[in-house]
Amino acid sequence: MGLTSFILTFFLAEAYTLWRDIYTKGHDIQSHSNDISLLASTRAERNPLSNKFTPCALKTLDDVAGCVQLFNALMWSSFARKYRIL
Fold first, then answer.
1. What distance in Å separates the CA atoms of residue 82 and residue 37, rounded to the nearest whole number?
2. How many Cα neighbours within 13 Å face the side chain of 80?
3. Rounded-to-integer distance, Cα 12 and Cα 8, Å
4. Which of 45, 50, 53, 60 is most exposed by smallest CB count within 10 Å?
5. What residues does each domain of the chain span?
6. ∠ CA(27), CA(31), CA(32), 5° rounding?
7. How wide is the angle at C-alpha 28 spanned by C-alphas 24 and 30, nearest 5°?
8. Residue 86 above 80 pLDDT?
9. 65 CB contacts (<8 Å, ≥6 apart)?
10. Is the Cβ–Cβ distance between 35 and 68 less than 8 Å?
């Protein structure tokens, strides 16, 4: 009984450590991606009359959003051994 409890406790602690590491990395990446998006949207050019983004600014913001999404996909795929080649 003691050996079983030790083994279960050990593997539960290892699983929690792995979960906490992935959770922390995900939170950090989400936080920094949000910072990039907010900076881009606050500095984008706006039409002075309607206070809406200009077409050029919308294109730039779409490009930034695509780059952030691509980075997010590649970052998570680097954690999986199956997709590490990406």
1. 30
2. 8
3. 6
4. 50
5. 2-83
6. 120
7. 115
8. no
9. 37
10. no
69: its two tokens = 């999404």
**CA gap 57, 4 in Å, rounded:** 61
Q: What pLDDT, in 10s, does the model give residues 1-39?
A: 888 888 888 889 989 998 898 899 889 989 999 999 999
Residue 21: both structure tokens together: 């590491």
Q: Are 36 and 61 in contact (CB under 8 A)?
A: no
> For 38-64, what is each residue's pLDDT tens digit?
999 999 999 999 999 999 999 999 999
Q: Is the pLDDT of residue 65 over 90?
A: yes
Q: What is the mean pLDDT of the chain?
A: 88
Token reading at 36: 């990039």
CA proximity to 23, closest of 74, 76, 67, 59? 76
Coil, helix or strand at residue 53: strand
